[in-house]
Write a structure and sequence with these properties.
Blueprint: E1 6-10, H1 16-24, E2 30-34, H2 38-43, H3 56-62, H4 69-80, E3 85-91, H5 125-130, H6 148-151, E4 155-160, H7 163-172, H8 179-182, H9 194-206, E5 213-214, E6 223-224, E7 249-251, H10 252-257, H11 259-270, H12 284-293, H13 302-306, H14 322-356
Parallel strand pairs: 1-3, 1-4, 2-3, 4-7
Antiparallel strand pairs: 5-6
Length: about 350
């Protein structure tokens, strides 16, 4: 069983912070690191996002204007040295150039350093046309700015949510009045995150860092995933069949309806001892630690901060027609908002449904 740092790769508004809070209760054996790669993605000299490109003041005041992908990895290494297993929950598109742009390795993660920042190009004219983010080499097939050798240091798992719910939740964080709290004053469809999650998922399967087995809720019962059917190999990067890392995909609806079953299965898959007490966090210390961890992303995690545990929701999610969703979004966000949400949901549904076929069956 792997004892690597656990990396829960997800997209925005996937109920991932509530999921993370479950594992923040295991302070005896786990060290949780909350969304570390956003520091480099948004604010540092290697930033991939243009959200704060013309707002140097915001980048400086974030406290992360000097953060690079190397400094994030250095932090993970320091915290690993404390002896506890690392648990990371992060938005995977923080490792991937936006808008489907091809990736090249972040300058801080290769041997030599290159000119400071910008969403630039490689040296020759052909590479300039590709508009890779840095003037650095790329790894064939790797959609991230992180070398595969570093990706191999993590035990990857995945958390997804139906775009009909995650997209309007994210849109709400980018309009008044909440935008004044989050500092996100515009909705970027490119930050939905499903395309990046799918591409990283497929790449990790292709190089054997996850799979071919698919995690199950039953102890020792594995469904054979179609890890060979989409161009993926069943061998690990070093011929060791994925280091025993199962394909473990959690759907947020299953988590909300069956928290104990899902958390128990997840723990079994990643090699963490399950304890029913993980589903409750109502002490003063629990809340203090959560507030400190989520401080840098104000406005995004209030529900998770104010929660005291994870219980099955009282009512299952009701089925709605697309027309009912459109009417609900129009009522809440106006015609323009509803149109943006609809376009973004439609653009991401295929990727969500693709990933969902690998999800734990509850």
């Amino acid at each position: 069983m792997s004892n690597k740092p656990i990396f829960v790769a997800t997209h925005p508004r996937a109920c991932s912070t509530a999921f993370e809070r479950v594992f923040m209760t295991r302070r005896d054996t786990l060290q949780c690191i909350h969304e570390p790669f956003g520091d480099a993605f948004y604010f540092g000299p290697e930033r991939l996002s243009v959200r704060y490109e013309h707002d140097e003041k915001a980048r400086r005041e974030s406290g992360f204007s000097e953060s690079t992908y190397r400094t994030v990895f250095d932090r993970i290494a320091r915290e690993s040295a404390e002896g506890k297993r690392i648990f990371i929950k992060d938005i995977i598109h923080y490792l991937v150039p936006p808008d489907g742009a091809p990736a090249s390795i972040a300058p801080s993660l290769i041997q030599h350093t290159l000119p400071k920042r910008g969403i630039g190009t490689n040296g020759d004219s052909a590479q300039q046309q590709k508009k890779t983010p840095y003037n650095t080499p790329a790894e064939p097939g790797n959609p991230t700015v992180v070398p595969t050798s570093l990706l191999a240091g993590f035990h990857f798992t995945f958390l997804i949510r139906d775009p009909h719910y995650s997209i309007p939740s994210y849109y709400r964080c980018t309009i008044p009045p909440l935008d004044a709290v989050t500092g996100f004053y515009e909705f970027y469809p490119s930050e939905a995150g499903y395309d990046e999650l799918r591409r990283v998922f497929d790449y990790l399967r292709q190089v054997g860092l996850v799979g071919p087995k698919v995690a199950s809720v039953e102890n020792g019962d594995h469904r054979n995933g179609d890890a060979s059917s989409n161009g993926a190999t069943t061998n690990g990067a070093n011929g060791d069949h994925g280091h025993g890392v199962e394909i473990c995909v959690i759907d947020a609806d299953d988590l909300l309806d069956h928290p104990e079953t899902v958390i128990r299965a997840f723990c079994r898959s990643v090699g963490v001892e399950y304890d029913p007490a993980m589903l409750k966090w109502d002490t003063e210390e629990d809340q203090k630690i959560a507030k400190a961890a989520f401080e840098k992303w104000k406005g995004f995690h209030e529900d998770a901060i104010e929660s005291t545990g994870l219980k099955p929701r009282c009512e299952r999610k009701s089925h709605k027609s697309e027309e009912e969703f459109d009417a609900e979004w129009t009522q809440r966000f106006g015609e323009k908002g509803a149109r943006i949400i609809r376009e973004t949901v439609d653009r991401n549904m295929a990727d969500y449904l693709y990933l969902k076929q690998f999800a734990l069956k509850v």
